[in-house]
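Example for tutorial group B:
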């Protein structure tokens, strides 16, 4: 898709706030993107990435809210809604080894042995699609484990722009995320409060959407509370503007709030 305010194309993307309950409260699985990456290098982020055209394959096995419901949530057509959910599942598997899929009527598979690792690498290398992986293993996407959370669009003026839908999901029983993507140099469970405090101290750079979505999670005491707080109607798109204020880039949110833009946002 493209934005009429800019000649730069916008790529559809999906990202997942993977959650667990801990003694201190909710924790989120956070990655720190490798420094030097063309977009958001050095930034804290969630597992996620751009939609692969094959993510829209209508033959994919499916359990949970149908694509039409996701289309309503994210104000898009059904093929894109299917692709966004599948991209969320695929990217989570590629970047953490956690596969939000299960046999029909069964429990989520714990994809940790060598065979599953070979599948993950083949998916990462685009040798197979998610639909092909699920068909060969008798699994179905568990769309019922995901919730819509937010929708942010990269400001005009950036050379890499994303129309990103954010999902939340509880880590399935028995699943253990691993730092396997090669795109992160740190990966760990962190409480939203700790991550936000580290942001304020300058120790944890993050983009504006990451900070705002984390702040919403921080309001809740349990994963069940977070999932229950997911929007039940259309998720409005947040379209910030990027402005220059003296020597500093500033992010201007739709409500007029002005925030200093992260230094790495404009990396080329």
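The residue assignment follows.
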């Amino acid at each position: 898709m493209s934005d009429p305010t800019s000649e730069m194309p916008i790529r559809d993307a999906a990202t997942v706030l993977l959650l667990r309950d801990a003694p201190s409260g909710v924790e989120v699985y956070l990655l720190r993107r490798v420094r030097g990456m063309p977009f958001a290098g050095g930034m804290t982020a969630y597992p996620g990435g751009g939609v692969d055209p094959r993510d829209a394959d209508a033959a994919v096995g499916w359990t949970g809210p149908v694509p039409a419901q996701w289309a309503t949530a994210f104000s898009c057509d059904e093929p894109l809604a299917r692709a966004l959910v599948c991209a969320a599942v695929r990217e989570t598997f590629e970047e953490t080894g956690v596969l939000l899929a299960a046999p029909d009527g069964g429990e989520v598979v714990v994809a940790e042995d060598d065979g599953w690792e070979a599948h993950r690498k083949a998916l990462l290398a685009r040798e197979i699609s998610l639909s092909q992986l699920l068909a060969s293993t008798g699994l179905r996407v568990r769309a019922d484990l995901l919730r819509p959370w937010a929708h942010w669009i990269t400001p005009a003026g950036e050379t890499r722009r994303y129309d990103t839908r954010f999902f939340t999901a509880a880590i399935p029983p028995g699943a253990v995320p691993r730092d396997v993507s090669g795109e992160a140099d740190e990966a760990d469970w962190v409480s939203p409060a700790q991550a936000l405090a580290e942001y304020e101290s300058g120790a944890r750079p993050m983009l504006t959407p990451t900070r705002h979505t984390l702040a919403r999670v921080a309001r809740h005491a349990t994963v069940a509370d977070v999932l229950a707080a997911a929007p039940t109607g259309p998720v409005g798109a947040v379209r910030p503007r990027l402005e220059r204020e003296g020597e500093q880039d500033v992010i201007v949110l739709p409500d007029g709030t002005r925030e200093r833009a992260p230094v790495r946002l404009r990396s080329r």
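The two ends are 21 Å apart (CA to CA). Compare this with the pattern of hydrophobic and polar residues in the output above.
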